[in-house]
């Protein structure tokens, strides 16, 4: 399996997990959870792909650093907007979004590890 397909499979798995978990949230918080999952997927999927494609190149550190800065900035901005708009319910949006970001960072790591491990050299 190519790294691209492995990463895509991970994104689909995280999206399905996010949808399943959103369905389990109380009805009043479901829209916020869906919003958080969607923001996380829309942001992280292309950033993760960019990082995976840059592994092993001279630009990897810059790409990784810019990606992390983008993620942290988005969490801050969404947190401020959600807190002012939703008050205490902002936690649902943020928990869902950060959960997706962390899950997709794990997918990035597994994809990179599988691509650059020496398992095929045995």
General description of the model:
- It is a single chain.
- The chain is an all-alpha fold.
- It has one domain.
- The protein is built from 4 helices and no strands.
- Helix 2 runs antiparallel to helix 3, helix 2 packs parallel to helix 4 and helix 3 packs antiparallel against helix 4.
- The protein is flat.
Entry summary:
The protein has 122 residues and is an all-alpha fold.
**Count of discrete alpha- or pi-helical segments spanning 4 or more residues:** 4
- Oligomer, anyone? single chain
Number of domains: 1
Q: Note poorly predicted spans.
A: none
Number of E strands? 0
Chain-averaged pLDDT: 87
Give the topology, please.
Elements: H1 3-24, H2 30-54, H3 60-86, H4 90-116
Helix pairs in contact: 1-2, 1-4, 2-3, 2-4, 3-4
Features:
single chain, 122 residues, mainly alpha, 4 helices, 83% helix, flat
């Amino acid at each position: 399996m190519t790294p691209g397909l492995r990463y895509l499979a991970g994104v689909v798995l995280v999206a399905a997990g996010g949808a399943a978990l959103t369905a389990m949230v109380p009805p009043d918080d479901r829209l916020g959870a869906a919003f958080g999952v969607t923001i996380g997927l829309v942001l992280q999927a292309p950033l993760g792909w960019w990082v995976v494609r840059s592994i092993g190149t001279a630009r990897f550190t810059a790409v990784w650093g810019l990606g992390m800065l983008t993620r942290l900035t988005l969490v801050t901005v969404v947190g401020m907007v959600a807190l002012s708009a939703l008050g205490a319910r902002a936690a649902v949006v943020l928990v869902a979004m950060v959960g997706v970001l962390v899950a997709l960072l794990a997918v990035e790591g597994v994809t990179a590890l599988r691509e650059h491990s020496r398992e095929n050299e045995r």
